[in-house]
Amino acid sequence: MFLKKIFSPLSSLSIRLRLAIIFVFIFGATTIVFNMFLFKAMIDTLQQDFDDALFNYSVDVSEGIEIGIKGDLSFPPLRLDHGKILPFPLGTALIQVRHSSGAVLARVGNFGDFNPPYKKDFERIWKGEEATYRTINKVSNIPSAEADSYRLISFPLDNAAKPQLLLQIAVPMTLLETQVRQRLTLLQIGIPLVLIIATFGGMFFSTRALKPLKNMIQTAKEIKATELSKRVPVPNAKDEIRELTLTMNDMLDRIEQSFQSQERFVADASHQLLTPLTIMRGELELLQKTEKKDIDGFIKSSLQEVDNLADIVQEMLLLSRVDAGIGALNLQDLALDEVVFETLPRAERLANSKGIKLKFDINNESGGDRKMIRGDNDLLQNLIFNIIENAIKYSPNNEIVTITLNWKAESSELVIQDNGPGINEDQLPYIFDRFSRGSKIETRVKGFGLGLAIAQKIAILHNTKIKAENRPGHGAQFSIEIKNI
């Protein structure tokens, strides 16, 4: 939710700019967090080195202090070794020896009003600590303070189980403060500079990365309805942009095929509609030159052509409904055998005109109850009728068309077999195309070549497999397989 609020204002920007901003944001946040931990670790290391040097100095100073045999508190003057190289100036160190009672036994340096704390230091040393350290940030009581802060060490002088004497040394942290300021200044300048470089780098690389996408956009703009054969250039890199390019080219293939199919459909439909209109025009012109007693024959022929036109228009309307997709379906639970029984009377009228018998068998391969399917009853009847009608048309007179329903465990299969001449092998791939008529005797069979195309469309809408093949010997076989529910 937090990141969504951050990145939501970026939605109106270009992808290139969004990628650059997101890259800089992630890189900058990571860099800043990393440098914060690095800076903290560096400060701790410098502090530890400073404390180690201060501890060694305290040991050197403690070795120059003499304590009487009887524990008397008389001391010779403290000696300082000015030859040592330490991270603090020796001449400005404040040194004192303090008793657990609070009494200051000796001092070196100008303490002024500065009175180092000591009680908690005694307690910590009595608990076993080797020495204690404090940072004194309030330096206004120290005359001529040379730094903004001092480091104070409290070191036991006597070796008793409970030491009573502390050596306290306060030194200015000038060098440490300088090192911290220098590194902080480096980070304050370096991080913005790195982020500026990262911004330009992000813009450059995002531009390079999106260049194939820009080429895709430019190519897609240039593709017109008359130039659907163009394709988007495929980049060499095996990445998501290549996958997007291949997907777009596949889509263009489908669009081109769809356009070609529509063009063929319009051309074929025009031809199919033009034929009966031409016949009607010729007969009407002939009627004008003929005696009126022959008018009944002309009317009968014209009505037949009108029926042909109506059949073509009806099938084209059905195709348009099927092309509308699944939203136009009236889906319900159906028994496939009942759908077949409802279709048979319509098919029998056509079969009787050729003396063909329809034989319907049910084969329950699963051995269970009757299987149910889900689909549009009217469209499924059209699918089955068109296949049966095709079998009747291409079967010789007085033959048998066999319809077999196979109930399987997962699906129901309807197999329709005829005893016709079969389908030319070179026409099998196109048998379900619109206005395709692939039989060897197609010129002698009445039809428009839309029935199987409609059947295929209905089958696709119902996620159903439909297959056409030649039977051994002679005849064709169509199988329709639809999933059970």
Could you describe the 3D structure shown?
There is one protein chain. By secondary structure, this protein is of the alpha+beta class. It is about 50% helix and about 15% strand. Among the domains are: about 80-180, Beta-Lactamase (2-Layer Sandwich), CATH 3.30.450; about 260-320, Signal transduction histidine kinase, dimerisation/phosphotransfer (DHp) domain (Helix Hairpins, Orthogonal Bundle), CATH 1.10.287; about 330-485, Heat Shock Protein 90, CATH 3.30.565. It has ten helices and twelve strands. The strands form three sheets. The protein has a five-stranded antiparallel beta sheet with strand order 2-1-5-4-3, sandwiched between helices. A hairpin with a 4-residue loop joins β1 (about 95-100) and β2 (about 105-110). The chain is elongated.
